[in-house]
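A further point concerns the way the authors explain their paired sequence and structure data. Since the whole study asks how a given chain folds, the encoding of that fold should be made plain. A single example would do more here than another paragraph of explanation. An entry of this sort, consisting of the sequence and the corresponding backbone structure tokens, reads as follows:

_____
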Amino acid sequence: MSRTIVITGSSDGIGAAGARQLHMDGNRVVIVGRSPEKTAAVAAELGADHFIADFTRLDDVRKLAEDLDSACPHIDVLVNNAGGVFGDRDKTVDGFEKTLQINHLAPFLLTNLLMEKLLACKASVIQTSSSGARLFGQLDIDDLDHDARYTPHKAYGTAKLENILFTKELHTRFHSHGLSAAAFHPGAVATSFASGSTSFMRAVYTSRAGRLFMASPEKGARQMVWLAEGTPGRDWQSGVYYEGGKPARRNNPQADDADLARRLWDRTAELVVKRAA
């Protein structure tokens, strides 16, 4: 059955690889990216609609939500795939730490702005997370911007933890209304990931030796495709974080804290609404 699938961060890497596979399977794929040139190139290759949005600007996210709502009569799957690890601590024009905004605040805002349509379509919302949530994530609700202790990999791991908590809270709040949500770790994938970071991960991802042990973008996108095309409740379970096509056996203990998920949601909503006022 053909579905309308919106994928953010689909101008490169696993987002582009997943878009190609989903298109080949007969779905309507909508490409969203930051680079006008790369985004247009992938869209032209697939004959797909595309939209440009820079997630360091929440006004871009709001405009993207308006454009998607107008262009898509229905949205069956929203894949929140855009993200990354960065360098020195930096604030966006909205006043938030860059890693937090791109990986968590922007997809949270986009999802909620599209919520009426997503609920009407009984859609699935998929987050590209990472095992970095387990390795480096340490969430402090009172210091989401990492004012106290910042490192690029800690900020990234915490943002990926926030993706998992967002998934769980989406399930808690909206699954009874027809929405399903899942998060997944694509594995270590040979892409341009971390190329602009000062984290140690840059050396790993850009080294010839490190890339020998990494998966191709096509392999890294397999779980994205599986979740996007699968039926929640039959093929996968809502509210779950997946690694290797199965519920993760190991996780950050904070990822299973239902109260923390609720508090993160409430605090995030307060932040993005306050900046919009």
